[in-house]
Amino acid sequence: MNKKSVTDVDVKGKRVLVRCDFNVPMKDGKITDENRIMGALPTIKYLMEHGAKVILCSHMGKPHNIFDAKVKLNKKEKKAVEALPAEEQAQAAEGYIEKAKKNDPVKLTLRPVADRLNELLGGKVAFAGDVTGPDAEAKVAACKEGECVLLENLRFYAGEEGRDLEFCKKLASYCDIYVNDAFGTAHRSHASTAAIVEYGLVKTAVCGFLIQKELEVMADALEHPVHPFVAVLGGAKVADKLNVISNLLNKCDTLIIGGGMAYTFLKAEGYEIGRSLVDDDKLGYCKDMMQKAKDMGKKLLLPVDTVIVKEFPNPIDAPVEVKTVKVNEIPADMEGVDIGEETRKLFADAIKGAKTVIWNGPMGVFENPILAKGTIAIAEAMAEAKDATTIIGGGDSAAAVQQLGYADKMTHISTGGGASLELFEGKVLPGIACLNDKD
Ligand code: AMP
Questions:
Q1: 336 Cα nearest atom in ligand 1
Q2: Given the DSSP bridges, would you call strands 177-180 and 15-19 parallel, antiparallel or unpaired?
Q3: The pLDDT of residue 394 is above 90
Q4: Ligand 1 contact via 337 beta carbon (within 6 Å)
């Protein structure tokens, strides 16, 4: 990695703006998973201990831009409004906006994160209830060396996702040094993740320890893997992972495909897949990838048997009657929702023989415990892969590994699903590309 990090700059007495990823899951105002907070601590502690005035910022969830004069509806609300007769639309829109103004500041405030940070950091963290307003201005001005201020949810302002110049200028006015440590949003090109630096508003821009670690582990595994290198992909759709599949085929020895994605590959192979998930316009792509694997002498492993159901469970975790069949026996009126027992063994054997394993995406509808066996089998096999570098690319797979208690058996669990997928695609992340290069 040739980007500067916090250890390459003098932070003593400087105001340092740190973009963190504090987008933590919340229930009834309580943080239910602190991983992202814990992941940010090393950088924050380092800055505090080295005499910086630390200004923290982050987004939380997908709020409306409630701190702007004109609050926009989200896509779903907009669609619902547009479906109404013209004379009812204005009032319905007003209703949504009122609700957003009432709910978002309660549900999507970063205040609980500030409270938790304050506990973890010896009472040295203040919270500003806005970002560009008087509270942030006052709290930033009052911040002393070795102290922190956490600003309110950046996405309460349209300027964050809209890369608004004035919004960036305000953020830049709070700092002498910019630090990006939000790996989970490093693939987004927003005001606080990239534009503030790209517009030339902060000259000193470096990464924090979390981004440094994520990149070191994942880029190293992708660029210099110890072979055999096995990549495991799952999740819902082929369309979301086109470049990932192609790029990983170039790098790995074995590509395992499970989850909803696998049925499009199976259909491309000529199997009848019943009512299973399928991307019909990606059949040609799947054929090309299977040919590419053959031409390159790579193994592309697909399920050989599958767990099927008549009705997709509703709600998703409802009890469901299942059957396991070979992939050439899926009845027309049933759908595949997990990999079967034989496939679990096939995939696990490939993983256990590997020296490098990366994984992104569940093998089935893992939200339902009856349909989680395939996903569990991958987590188990990775936990048992002795002497292998094992990397979980965030998202659902990371959650599954944590829930199963295998977290400490993995080399690395990424804090960013989307960001690590883009690394797997071979893309340069905008939140990292904009940072200062090492001399
Ligand atoms: P992704 O967001 O692409 O990683 O996909 C995750 C989602 O894929 C999860 O919500 C799973 O329930 C879903 N999924 C995995 N396998 C299947 C399948 N065979 N059929 C339908 N949905 C699936």
A1: 19
A2: parallel
A3: no
A4: yes
